[in-house]
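== Fold encoding ==
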Amino acid sequence: MLRESFFSSLMSLVSDEVSDINNLFNVNRTLNITKIRHNSQTCYLRKILNDTFDYQRRIKIVDGLLKKPKYIYTDAEQKPTWLGEMILYTKEETDGTGVDFTVVVPGELKPYQTELKALIDFYKLASKRYKIVVDENI
């Protein structure tokens, strides 16, 4: 009698541990398959971002808009000092140092900027630069 209860308790403990390990294995396998099936293409990157953060599929990826930089010259350079009306762009928006793509996310995902950045960094190509823009209107 004592042996049977000890043996059944031991088997129950072992089976619970094996079941937990199997569950961890299945979760890890699913995550690895997801990572393998997605790459840096825009459609796959947008899909994984929307699947992870926004089931309404509002996250968009747009090409970076690169503008020609405008320079302001000194008097010694003998160039025109009046440039007319001009729009100021950030360093990322101009040629040469611009971003390759912009990720537009809804306003409710603003607290998740770090997680978004980590996921984008995992999937994007090493040479590509990006910017995350929070749009409160979507």
Summary: Residues 74 and 81 are 7 Å apart (CA to CA). Residues 1-37 form one domain. The longest helix spans residues 2-37.
